[in-house]
Amino acid sequence: MSRIQATFNTLRQTGRKALIPYFTAGHPNRELAVPLMHALARNGADVIELGVPFSDPMADGPVIQRSSESALALGVGLVDVLQWVAEFRRDDAQTPVVLMGYMNPIERMGVESFAVQAARAGVDGVLVVDQPPEEAGEFVSIVRAQQIDPIFLLAPTSTPKRIAQVGQLASGYVYYVSLKGVTGAGNLNVDEVLDALPAIREATGLPVGVGFGIRDGQTARAIAARADAVVIGTRLIQEIDAAGPQHAVEKAGAFIKGIRDAMDEGLPAAREMQS
User: Fold this and answer.
1) Strand, helix or coil for residue 232
2) pLDDT tens digits, one per residue of 144-192
3) How far is CA 141 from the centre of its chain?
4) What is the set of domains in the chain, with CATH numbers?
5) ∠ CA 122-60-113 to the nearest 5 degrees?
6) Tell me: the pLDDT tens digits for 2-48?
7) Active site positions, annotated
8) pTM metric for this prediction
9) Phi then psi for 138, rounded to 5 degrees?
10) What phi and psi values does residue 22 have, to the nearest 5 degrees?
């Protein structure tokens, strides 16, 4: 059983939902990548999505684009990201880590080499934004051979055929893009999101995480009422940027703790954990 599956199974038993924060590896500087990962895990992150910097992030809004540009300016690449995951694993053997990015850096490394090195570092899943299910068969086979979960995006525009294709290929969880736009957009309609989830679950049998546009504890709690996971990235990076490098780790941890507390509010299991 993968770390991701084990995490969702444990959460399900306690009635809690997964909190999945995202930040771009290497932003605001290289030295903070691993401390940020540990701070997120300590403060309630169930899975960490670690962004691999890329020059043309088609799905990302301006905040995440700037964070990617910042990391690239520091020379951060896929090799660095894998080294940071391996360093994180020395002290945390439980929190799943998912790499989120684009196909170009993986192809440059070589897909098979990437899969082997990622598994060795302790990566649990990989979400490649520009790898559609129609073209992903070989990639999925390669990463699954290394016990890495291939995770796919679905959106409000996804057809039943596309959802079924993802159901055949994906493992770990499915990432539902909650709106027709890029990360950080402000036009989230919670009711529309929640209405879309049952069909996805029926077709895939996997937990469904919801991201893009979730900015505060109230919205996270509303999504968590029916989704299996809440993914939050843009607002986290804004908190990191506002804090500056000196206070980024502390501020990121406090922000995620606030989201975690909002998601757990009123749950008996959460009260027992806090007592």
Assistant:
1) strand
2) 999 999 999 999 889 999 999 999 999 999 999 976 544 444 555 777 8
3) 21
4) 3-179+188-263 (3.20.20.70)
5) 30
6) 999 999 999 999 999 999 999 999 999 999 999 999 999 999 999 99
7) 49, 60
8) 0.93
9) -65, -45
10) -125, 135
